[in-house]
């Protein structure tokens, strides 16, 4: 299957093409750049490295196969939506996507697994949060921006605080940050996340909160010499040391998980 559609909102073509190596797998590209990989036959298999790391955190967010309430900001080809339905059937999910034509195109050519419970919202990720007032999610995934060209209103501590307010007490916020050397944008996003949680060192002892921030990536990414993706994970409870060990073991390898002083040094 090969399909194409003009996304008039951004003036670029979206295409869906066969993987070529894995039967039943497809690649979504926008403007000629790969955006998502979907394996319809095996939705529990995640091809892109950063999405695999996010999936590994989702695996820890609740006991095995227990459904999650998940909010996806940035739909793409709904790879993680499919993953949660495969690994945690019955999960209640919502996805916010700015481009209606993109979401329609994806759903028309890459149908969701049977039984998927997904609420779709067309709009800006921040402006759409009012729709979810009074609700809480076990996982929120922000996968919209890459580097300094990111929409400014989505890359601030204020926005992260709004997302954290939608988390359940045991929930986790996951943010994909793509960047190029020397990773100035990624380092700033760590500081913005820490500020949103009150863990950036500026708070007084009475204001200090027991929250956690971790950064996950291939080990070499934290040298600042290579382009790529870093996944930020934030919780409203202290980051569990056992999560770090489990994520290091799960890979993809060579894996690194920075927390505490190691993360502070990276954020610089």
Q: Explain this structure to me?
A:
The protein has 268 residues and is α/β, with parallel strands linked by helices. The protein has one domain (43-267): 3-Layer(aba) Sandwich (Rossmann fold). Helix content is 27%, strand content 30%. It is built from seven helices and twelve strands. It has helices at residues 49-60, 79-87, 100-109, 157-165, 184-197, 241-250, 260-267; strands at residues 3-7, 12-18, 25-30, 33-39, 69-73, 92-97, 117-122, 137-142, 167-179, 212-218, 228-235, 255-258. The strands form two sheets. The protein has an eight-stranded mixed sheet, with helices on both faces. Strand 3 and strand 4 (33-39) form a beta hairpin. Helix 1 (49-60) runs parallel beside helix 2 and helix 5 packs across helix 7. The chain is globular and about 50 Å long. Mean pLDDT is 92; it is low at 203-209.
If you consult CATH, what is the topology? Rossmann fold
Low-confidence stretches: 203-209
Overall, the morphology is: globular
Question: Radius of gyration, rounded?
Answer: 18 Å
Q: Please name the CATH architecture.
A: 3-Layer(aba) Sandwich
- What is the level 1 CATH name? Alpha Beta
């Amino acid at each position: 299957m090969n399909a194409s559609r003009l996304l008039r909102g951004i003036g670029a073509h979206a295409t869906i093409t066969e993987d070529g190596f894995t039967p039943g797998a497809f690649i979504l590209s926008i403007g000629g750049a790969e955006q998502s990989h979907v394996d319809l036959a095996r939705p529990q298999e995640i091809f892109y490295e950063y999405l695999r790391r996010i999936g590994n955190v989702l695996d820890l967010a609740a006991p095995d196969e227990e459904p999650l309430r998940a909010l996806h900001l940035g739909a793409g080809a709904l790879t993680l939506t499919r993953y949660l339905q495969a690994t945690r059937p019955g999960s209640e999910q919502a996805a916010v996507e700015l481009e209606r034509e993109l979401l329609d195109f994806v759903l028309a050519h890459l149908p969701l697994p049977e039984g998927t419970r997904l609420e779709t919202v067309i709009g800006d990720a921040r402006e759409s949060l009012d729709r979810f007032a009074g609700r809480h999610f076990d996982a929120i995934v922000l996968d919209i921006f890459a580097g300094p060209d990111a929409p400014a209103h989505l890359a601030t501590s204020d926005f992260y605080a709004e997302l954290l307010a939608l988390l359940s007490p045991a929930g986790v916020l996951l943010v994909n940050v793509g960047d190029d050397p020397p990773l100035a944008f990624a380092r700033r996003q760590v500081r913005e996340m820490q500020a949103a949680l009150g863990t950036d060192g500026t708070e007084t002892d009475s204001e200090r909160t027991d929250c956690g921030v971790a950064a996950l990536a291939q080990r070499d990414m934290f040298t600042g010499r290579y382009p790529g993706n870093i996944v930020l994970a934030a919780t409203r409870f202290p980051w569990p040391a056992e999560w770090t060990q489990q994520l290091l073991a799960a890979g993809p390898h060579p894996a690194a998980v920075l927390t505490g002083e190691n993360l502070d040094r990276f954020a610089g």
